[in-house]
């Protein structure tokens, strides 16, 4: 029973860290990253479809994302969708592929992005602490219902706190890395 609670807590915390990493990939750093276009869905014959399912996306250099659709008739749709995604990007096509130049960030925008990723990180820390709270409540309820002893509960609470500390350190490491990436000129 305790192992199940600990396993569940670890899995939920790991998912929170994974989600944070995905969110960080969507934040523009001045360098080309295919993650910038990850959440974009294009109208593929009436069906909203992820861009990666209708085109190959790559970064030929650090300041350009290239989108090559499997179906050439999708080029204008892809171009319009990227433009309307409010990412501050201006795609251009040459008939075969859509090039998305990544403009350099100014100092003010970098600081705004750092504030934004700090908020996203704090939300992830809160989510981790909520998992800790939920699982400790679950342990206390199990103790009250005579499923586990007080010593087992206290030991499990320490393990949950260890898991919490580990995942918060991972969040801090991701934040530091992303902040450094954003502030690089």
Structure description:
57% of the residues lie in helices and 15% in strands. The strands form 2 sheets. The protein has a 4-stranded antiparallel sheet with strand order 3-4-6-5, with helices on one face. Helix 1 runs antiparallel to helix 3 and helix 1 packs parallel to helix 4. The radius of gyration is 22 Å and the shape is elongated. The chain has 4 helices and 6 strands; from the N terminus they run H-E-E-E-E-H-E-E-H-H. With 185 residues, the chain is of the alpha+beta class.
Q: Which oligomeric form is depicted?
A: single chain
Question: Given the structure, what is the number of helices?
Answer: 4
Radius of gyration: 22 Å
Unreliable residue runs: none
Strand order of the largest sheet: 3-4-6-5
- Fraction in helix: 55-70%
Strand content: 5-15%
Quickly describe the structure.
The protein has helices at residues 2-25, 75-84, 107-144, 150-183; strands at 41-44, 47-50, 55-61, 64-69, 92-93, 98-101. By secondary structure, the protein is an alpha+beta fold.
Helix/strand layout:
Blueprint: H1 2-25, E1 41-44, E2 47-50, E3 55-61, E4 64-69, H2 75-84, E5 92-93, E6 98-101, H3 107-144, H4 150-183
Antiparallel strand pairs: 1-2, 3-4, 4-6, 5-6
Helix pairs in contact: 1-3, 1-4, 3-4
Keywords:
alpha+beta, 185 residues, 4-stranded antiparallel β-sheet, 4 helices
């Amino acid at each position: 029973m305790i192992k199940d609670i600990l396993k569940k807590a670890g899995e939920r915390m790991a998912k929170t860290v994974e989600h944070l990493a995905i969110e960080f990939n969507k934040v523009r750093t001045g360098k080309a990253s295919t993650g910038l276009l990850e959440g974009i869905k294009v109208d593929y014959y009436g069906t909203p479809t992820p861009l990666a399912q209708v085109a190959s996306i790559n970064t030929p250099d650090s300041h350009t994302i290239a989108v090559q659709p499997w179906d050439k008739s999708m080029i204008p749709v892809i171009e319009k969708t990227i433009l309307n995604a409010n990412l501050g990007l201006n795609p251009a096509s040459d008939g075969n592929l859509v090039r998305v130049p990544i403009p350099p960030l100014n100092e003010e925008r970098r600081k705004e992005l750092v504030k934004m990723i700090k908020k996203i990180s704090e939300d992830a820390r809160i989510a981790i602490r909520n998992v800790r709270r939920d699982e400790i409540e679950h342990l206390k309820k199990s103790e009250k219902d005579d499923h586990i002893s007080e010593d087992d509960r206290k030991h499990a609470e320490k393990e949950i706190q260890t898991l919490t500390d580990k995942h918060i350190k991972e969040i801090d490491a991701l934040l530091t890395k992303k902040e450094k990436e954003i502030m690089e000129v």
